[in-house]
Design brief:
Layout (H helix, E strand, L loop, with lengths): L2 H6 L4 E6 L6 H13 L4 E6 L16 E2 L10 H15 L3 E5 L4 H6 L6 E5 L13 H10 L4 E4 L2 H9 L8 E3 L20 E6 L8 H12 L4 E6 L5 H10 L6 E5 L5 H4 L4 E4 L8 H8 L4 E4 L4 H4 L8 E2 L3 H12 L2 H18 L2 H13 L2
Parallel strand pairs: 1-2, 1-4, 2-3, 4-5, 5-6, 6-7, 8-9, 8-11, 9-10, 11-12, 12-13
Helix pairs in contact: 7-12, 10-13
Length: 365
Amino acid sequence: MTEVAAAAHQPPLLLHVFPTFATGGAQMRFAAVANHFGPRWRHAIVAMDGDLACRERLDPDLDVHFPSVSLPKGDTFTNARRCRALLRAMAPAALITTNWGAIEWVLGNLPPLVRHVHVEEGLGPDEIVGQFARRIWLRRLALRWSTLVVPSQGLERLAAEVWRLPRTRTRRILNGVDLTRFAPRPRQRHGPVVIGAVAMLRPEKAIGRLLRAFAMLRRTTPARLVVVGDGPERVSLERLAAELALGEDVRFIGRLVRPEEAYADFDIVALSSDSEQMPLCVLEAMACGLPVAATAVGDVPEMLSAANRRFVVPRDDAALAAALRELAAAPALRAAVGVANRDRAEAIYGQGEMLSAWGRVFDGA
């Protein structure tokens, strides 16, 4: 068989460009999709910052490689030309970019060389207050011929009303959760209530707010806080915990390959973010039958069960502390809210439909 014929019999190559392939929501969702479909596609993954931590979640049998691409910062259009040359050389069946950090690859595909899918997960900390005009215009111009995939109602509205992208080319795919892997487990433990947070330790996650709220809670209620995750803010957050004299009541345990094991020790899950869209940690908590105290960001209020929504509060330390305090004081309430969350996860957020929808996107259907 000739090399050309052999290439024709290979699965399609998908080129994925992430600003980072650290262990975050978008990366873990991609891993779930790729692992589910196995040999259906070949994958090339570019991490613009070189961080490939999430590769440990990929099935070792996948046909996947990680091209090293270094682009100097600050020269967008020169970098776009370099990306175009790389696209010509790699000749993927589709280019799949994620978030603003991959915009140079989007520009490099204009006019289109290959089918393009752009995934917007949410806005970075520099866009929480308002969007930059330059980014609005670049998205508006560069994404008009792309398929745009978003997880939340808020991003769907933003794409239509601010970026003015065609609604016919925008798809909202709800995040899903493995309801077998993340499931309720018996809790027969005695002692203080355990509050858990699962997050990348980045500014927009506002874990400092959670530490301050936890300090308020401890004035009246015995409790412990476990923070699962890692990131650039870990050192400063550990310093803040020491300044607040939280002592051994707070533990930072880093990133876990099997976070479901951590949820088994939680009584409450906390989300303190300034910006989210459809956070996986909330879905995981719901699937595990846990109540959630959360800031009212993104689609979080709509995601949770009706019984849980009164514990969705403004982005305020005291409001979050009050929500945690009410849940911590009432075991029967926690149990009832947890059951309602699990029921809602089973009804809406199973992983099957999410996987099927992403399969269609990757296939170009």
